[in-house]
Design a protein that fits this description.
- The protein has 1015 residues and is an alpha+beta fold.
- The protein has five domains: 62 residues, no CATH class; 204 residues, Metalloenzyme, LuxS/M16 peptidase-like (Cytochrome Bc1 Complex, Chain A, domain 1, 2-Layer Sandwich), CATH 3.30.830; 215 residues, Cytochrome Bc1 Complex, Chain A, domain 1, CATH 3.30.830.10; 207 residues, Cytochrome Bc1 Complex, Chain A, domain 1; 221 residues, Cytochrome Bc1 Complex, Chain A, domain 1 (2-Layer Sandwich).
- It is built from 32 helices and 30 strands.
- The strands form six sheets. The protein has a seven-stranded mixed β-sheet with strand order 11-12-10-13-9-15-14, sandwiched between helices. Strands 16, 17, 18, 19, 20, 22 and 23 form a seven-stranded mixed β-sheet that branches.
- α5 runs parallel beside α9 and α27 runs antiparallel to α31.
- The radius of gyration is 29 Å and the shape is globular.
- The two termini are 57 Å apart.
């Protein structure tokens, strides 16, 4: 173990050990000697006490208090007291999922997850929970995985007790009302249809076809109308009966784990939990036990070739390995994946890129169940690489053998352990609902002591265990999966006699072939390529994790009604032609982290489709050139992002402050003097073309939103125009373009975090030396928003390569400003839950149903969207219009009290505490982009919302949403099975003038733009 003096010091000062007896009487912190702390935090070998199983280790920088206990019904509970939270949250995880589906009822566990939201005996209305949570600034959701079902929500602090009471009834007395059982099957079926063309789902379902059919993972899990019908059960049971039977068998308190986060003291939260959740019955259920292996020895090795929906080329190697959960303190696969998945110099990926065969590589645990697991290697291939499958596979096995022969080192394990310890000690706070959901699952995974630390624990170096897992990664124990859109051409000579098979329900086409023993022998014995090496020690491991003294302390940061004081926001420390630098030293989060942003703005970045794609190519090639250098930084908690945008490109560096300038300097040097090699340019061009083509393969609702932005943003070019422009771009063109791009620029930067002003100024030095010195300062305008004409119904229809269809109805506001932004946001808050209930739950139109405020560059807007597997967009639009007509009555009948609840919820959402430094930095950067140097967009929006009256919101609805002067854009995305609408719905309301948008580019040329006047 090296260089742990600082860590020992931090641990001795602040290690948090939460220890509560099962009666939840708070006791004093454990007394631990320095030697014990060294053992616990440095060697991380502290074991749970045999006498007290409610001890919880937490980071010294975590101010929350934790208590773990078990109710008399054997429900596991973790209570978290967080005085600083502005959102309370809860999650309940049941240790059962799709693994327990009856063979005759695929999708039953998932369907049951849907049903619990649709009424309980105490709160029978099917939208009661969603309406309550939405009205009180919250969100709610759930997921079903192979072995878990997880329900979670957040809510404003004042309504946690009531929300818990409603939530608890899910697991005490759900109604399973017959009417909603029938209706919700349609929602599950719509979800299934939405995923049918998702390549990740198709790949997983293909793997299931070639694995052990007796293992429950091999079954279809989503469910649809066929599997959830009353006739589907082979025993003659109706679906409602099967739901109730599954619920009574597995939804037992002894299989449940609950997490509650609130501002209240632990004693209060515990009392509420006992009062509500003790009523959950304990059926003494046993977890579903699996005795079958995922793959039998006879099934491996094998190769499967799958034709994907999107244009992608991928090679995946999947190895069955022993269960991982018993080894969470040694994490053998993390060590192995670190070496196989490394992207630094001398890595497997670097060699594959040098050969022109691959673009990306990842490795790690893929399926981690209580009985078994798998280890996967996934490689994104180039067109050249798809023809070199056997050679690439050979290199993967060479990398594995290199590890076996020369790559098992204690120093490397200790380096990973050190990085894991740093991440645990200085982890950033996440949203309460995410944290609760994660920990509810973790209660089933780890001993109470390590509920928080389990994912980070790497306490013991075990060479024998590492070699045991390495011994399973052999050519005889592998499933090779190849995704190839042109497989008929690629493998015509070798697989012509192998028949195609079809994946049930999904219709994906695949071929399976056994791997020739001679080929396996070649992979096993081929010499190790000397260009693959074990990673060197990581130069980016932070050494200075101290907090900088505050040079201008000011007052502590406080979110207030009146907004920020002058010392509570970034200040501009450089303001010269071509360079503007903002700085703010963090005095809130107390972490050795910082965020540094800078943007290079160029007037030619996006002025034409050709320049748009050349900017994207510039960014892609710089990222590619930086990979070997930046990857070790990412392992050490120092990430960067480089991305193009309307005005140019931006860089974000985020993480521990210690080595940020080292990374920044290399990024800036590469931007200013990029090395464009012909082979990498060819591959980058292919990759960008592929991504642009795949936009038409995205989820339908995403395509509709993209079309909205294409129509309303200027400049914003459709994918077809960018693809056409890209075809003619040469390497010579790019080499000419980049100096022109960098010749006339302006730079804007933000430095925020554990930095002093001198540090921020020092970060600017590389920018001045490499980017600004020879550039001509040039002001670059923001993007513009097209102003829709009043009284027109603008309609744009696009074709989808998907069976689903989408209708979107978008209402644009009248002017920029925080007041109208607040008005649209309040309408979205009020209409969100009833829109979802009416169109999804009641009318069964689809799985994706959205109503929300949707501003574009601060131009206010309100969006209504439905994606449906069986309804034409024109019919969907008619349903949306009917809802909007009824909305006038909804607002007319709304009480002042209910309106205040919604307004309070909006204000709570708007002023939500920013959980961590990165969230706040991102807002600062957005406000810089908005040219809002008061940095109080949230406060101004909240202040505007406070003054909105119910009468005013009714007026806004009548005039902006229903009136003749509304600005409306309708987008119809027509799926393969939706060519003919119902005739009575294929018409425009008489009060609207139809404007058909045939070509967004031509349309935008004839329209006005929103005024830049802001607020």
């Amino acid at each position: 173990m090296r260089n742990f003096t600082w860590l020992l010091k931090a641990a001795m000062e602040n290690l948090h050990v939460h220890d509560f007896p099962t009666t939840i009487r708070r006791i004093n912190a454990l007394t631990i000697s320095p030697a014990s702390i060294l053992l616990a935090v440095i060697s991380l070998a502290l074991a749970p006490s045999a006498r007290c199983n409610t001890t919880i280790l937490s980071s010294p920088h975590d101010a929350r208090q934790y208590a773990a206990f078990e109710l008399p019904n054997r429900l596991k509970v973790l209570v978290i007291e967080d005085p600083k939270t502005d959102k309370s949250a809860a999650a309940l995880d049941i240790f059962v999922g799709s693994n327990a589906n009856p063979a005759s009822r695929p999708g039953l566990a998932h369907f049951l997850e849907h049903m619990l939201f649709l009424g309980t005996r105490k709160y029978p209305e099917p939208d009661a929970f969603q309406a309550f949570i939405t009205k009180h600034a919250g969100e709610q959701n759930a997921y079903t995985s192979f072995a878990h079902t997880n329900y979670f929500f957040d809510v404003d602090n004042n309504h946690l007790r009531e929300a818990l009471d409603r939530f608890g009834q899910f697991f005490i007395a759900p109604t399973f009302a017959k009417a909603y059982v029938d209706r919700e099957r349609s929602a599950v079926d719509a979800e299934f249809h939405a995923k049918k063309k998702n390549d990740a789902w198709r790949k997983m379902e293909t793997i299931k076809q070639v694995m052990n059919p007796r293992h429950p993972f091999s079954r279809f899990t989503i469910g649809n109308l066929a599997t959830l019908s009353d006739k589907a059960d082979t025993e003659g049971n109706r679906i409602q009966e099967d739901l109730i039977a599954f619920y009574r068998r597995y939804y037992s308190a002894n299989l449940m784990a609950l997490v509650v986060i609130g501002k209240e003291p632990i004693d209060v939260l515990t009392r509420w939990i006992r009062e509500i959740f003790s009523a959950i019955p304990n059926f003494q259920a046993k977890p579903s036990r699996i005795t079958e292996p995922m793959f039998t020895p006879e099934q491996l090795p094998t190769r499967v070739t799958l034709k994907p929906v999107q244009e992608q080329r991928r090679l995946e190697l999947l190895f069955p390995v022993p269960a991982l959960k018993p080894h969470y303190k040694t994490k053998p696969l993390r060590y192995i994946s670190h070496i196989i998945g490394h992207e630094g110099k001398g890595s497997l990926l670097s060699l594959l890129k040098e050969q022109g065969w691959a673009e990306a590589l990842s490795a790690g645990a893929r399926h981690d169940h209580t009985d078994s697991a798998t280890f996967g290697v996934s490689i994104t291939l180039t067109k050249k690489g798809i023809g070199k499958i056997d050679e690439i596979t050979a290199l993967v096995f060479q990398a594995i053998r290199l590890m076996e022969e020369r790559g098992v080192h204690e120093w490397l394990f200790q380096e990973l352990s050190q990085l894991a310890n740093i991440d645990f000690l200085f982890q950033q706070k996440s949203p309460s609902t995410d944290y609760a959901s994660h920990l509810a699952n973790a209660l089933h995974q780890y001993p109470t002591l390590d509920i928080l630390r389990g994912p980070f624990a790497m306490d013991h170096y075990d060479e024998a265990l590492l070699r045991q897992y390495l011994g399973t990664l052999t050519p005889n124990n592998v499933l090779i999966l190849v995704l190839d859109p042109d497989t008929e051409k690629t493998t015509a000579e070798t697989t012509a006699d192998i028949p195609w098979s079809e994946v049930p329900w999904f219709g994906a086409q695949y071929r399976q072939e056994q791997i020739d023993p001679d080929l396996s022998q070649t992979w096993r014995k081929s010499p190790i390529d000397t260009r693959i090496v074990i990673p060197s020690p990581n130069i980016f491991i932070p050494r200075d994790l101290s907090l900088k003294s505050v040079t201008n302390p000011g007052r502590p940061f406080v979110i207030s009604h009146s907004g920020y004081g002058p010392k509570d926001r970034p200040t501009r420390i450089i303001h010269t032609p071509g360079l503007s630098v903002w700085f703010r030293q963090d005095t809130t989060y107390g972490m050795p982290r910082a965020d540094f942003y800078f943007s290079i703005r160029s007037p030619i970045a996006n002025d034409t489709p050709t320049h748009s794609v050349m900017t994207a190519l510039f960014v892609a090639l710089v990222r590619d050139q930086l990979t070997e250098f930046s990857y070790p930084a990412s392992l050490a908690g120092l990430d960067y992002d480089l991305y193009p945008h309307i005005r140019g490109l931006s860089v974000r560096i985020s993480g521990y402050h210690d080595k940020q300038k080292l990374l920044l300097t290399r990024i800036v040097e590469t931007l200013s003097r990029p090395k464009f090699q012909p082979e990498r340019f060819r591959i980058a061009k292919q990759e960008l073309t592929r991504k642009l083509r795949n936009i038409r393969k995205q989820m339908p609702y995403r395509q509709a939103v993209l079309e909205l932005r294409t129509i309303l943003l200027q400049p914003h070019f459709p994918p077809s125009a960018r693809i056409e422009a890209l075809e003619s771009v040469t390497l010579s063109d790019l080499r000419t373009f980049v100096p022109e791009f960098l010749q006339r620029i302006s730079l804007v930067a933000l430095s925020h975090g554990n930095l002093q002003e001198a540090d921020a100024l020092d970060m600017i030095v590389p920018l001045k030396e490499h980017l600004i010195r020879n550039a001509i300062p040039t002001k670059v305008s923001r993007g513009q928003v097209i102003e829709l004409a009043k009284g027109n119904s603008h309609i744009r229809t696009i074709a989808l390569d998907h069976n689903d269809a989408v209708a979107m109805v978008y209402f644009q506001g009248q002017q920029r400003g925080f007041r109208e932004l607040a008005e649209m946001a309040l309408l979205g808050q009020i209409l969100k839950a009833p829109f979802f209930h009416r169109l999804r739950t009641e009318q069964e139109l689809g799985y994706v149903v959205l109503a929300k405020a949707f501003p574009i560059i601060e131009a206010p807007g309100l969006l209504f969207l439905v994606q449906s597997p069986n309804t034409h967009p024109a019919d969907l639009t008619n349903h949306i219009r009917q809802f909007l007509t009824a909305g006038s009555d909804t607002l007319a009948g709304m009480s002042e009290t209910e309106f205040i609840h919604h307004k309070t919820a909006l204000i709570t959402r708007t002023l939500a505490l920013e959980e961590n430094l990165k969230v706040r930095s991102n807002r600062y950067w957005q406000e810089i982009e908005m040219q809002l140097d008061t940095f109080d967009s949230r406060e101004q929006t909240a202040d505007a919302a406070r003054t909105i009256t119910l009468a005013e919101i009714r007026h806004i609805y009548r005039t902006r949403i229903q009136g003749n002067n509304k600005r409306q854009l309708i987008i119809h995305a027509v799926g393969n099975g939706h060519r003919q609408p119902s005739s009575e719905n294929n018409r425009i309301p008489e009060d609207m003038i139809p404007v058909i948008i045939q070509d967004p580019t031509l349309f935008k040329q004839k329209q006005n733009v929103f005024s830049e006047k802001n607020n």
